[in-house]
Specification:
single chain, 137 residues, alpha/beta, Oxidized Rhodanese, domain 1
Amino acid sequence: MKTRVLKQCLIILALSMTGAAYSLVSGISPLPWAEPELGPGEIRVADARVMEAIWIDTRPIKEYENEHIPGALFFDEGAWDASLVDLMDVWLTEPRPIIVYCGSESCGTSRRIAERLRKALPDAEIYSLKGGWDAWQ
């Protein structure tokens, strides 16, 4: 009786380990030590493209003037109050999710501004675009 129960436990353990190993190797489950693909408040380009969002460009003005996401508002962190008023004019008229982007994934401006905007507009749905302008192109 004891050997039968032991065999059943070993079979269950072997099947569980096989399933866990398959999930990790096949990519179904992320590796426990891997960094999460998205950080808090981030959104992927593919998900962002299908949203009717208010786009906020936090890159330098020259880059914004050269090229930006269609309809994006320029947001100058140095002129926070004026930029916030411009954003609120749009958001209060037609509340939509707000997506903030900067130049690249290594740029922290969009995450920093998105965090400040969440405090200034607590009722708004605000994201930072993972990969920034580089990912958009």
